[in-house]
Design a protein that fits this description.
With 188 residues, the chain is an all-alpha fold. Helices cover 91% and strands 0% of the residues. It is rod-shaped.
Length: 188
């Protein structure tokens, strides 16, 4: 697509340059020359308008891509927050259950007080470690997914920017040459 766009732009610029040279070298009166130059100027303005419309469309597409990627990142952040909240709630429920079981055992069996307390503390520690490991894993996975989404968005944005930069046409030189020729042919 980019090669055909470059070829088309080159062919258009080359054809325009050939038309200008043909107009300037043709044996015509000043009035005919001005009319021809006016027609060509209108054609070039139409071409510039087409390029401007294409640029606006591509810019809109890039904005849409950025918006989509931002939405994806927001969704991933919300999922992570919900997951962390759920795991913390589960850990609290587990801790409540462990504490309740421990108190009931302490009331019933005062002789095993020391052993049961150590067991409950160990279980609470394991639950906390497991929950912490789960949260760390979820954060790492979400971080990688966010990197991937950001990278995809950056690549898509870079592709669109590159496409726009490749299609950019500089009419300032043509404009200056045309202005010089009009002034030369019409010194008034």
């Amino acid at each position: 697509m980019a090669k055909s766009g470059k070829f088309l732009a080159g062919a258009l610029i080359g054809g325009t340059a050939a038309a200008v040279v043909a107009l300037l070298l043709a044996p015509k009166s000043g009035k005919e020359m001005r009319e021809d130059l006016a027609k060509k100027t209108d054609e070039w303005l139409d071409l510039a308008s087409d390029y401007t419309d294409d640029f606006v469309m591509k810019t809109s597409e890039m904005g849409s891509i950025v918006k989509d990627r931002a939405s994806d990142l927001g969704d991933q952040a919300n999922d992570l927050a919900s997951n962390v909240k759920g795991k913390a709630g589960d850990a609290m429920d587990d801790m409540d259950d462990i504490t309740s079981d421990t108190l009931a055992d302490l009331k019933r069996q005062s002789s095993d007080l020391s052993d049961r307390f150590r067991k409950a503390a160990s279980e609470a520690k394991d639950v906390a470690e497991d929950t912490t490991e789960d949260i760390v894993i979820d954060v790492k996975e979400t971080k990688e997914a966010a990197k991937e989404t950001t990278s995809e968005g950056a690549e898509a944005l870079a592709d669109k920017t590159k496409e726009l930069n490749e299609k950019k046409t500089d009419f300032s030189e043509i404009k200056e040459e045309l202005k010089e020729e009009v002034e030369k042919n019409n010194p008034e």
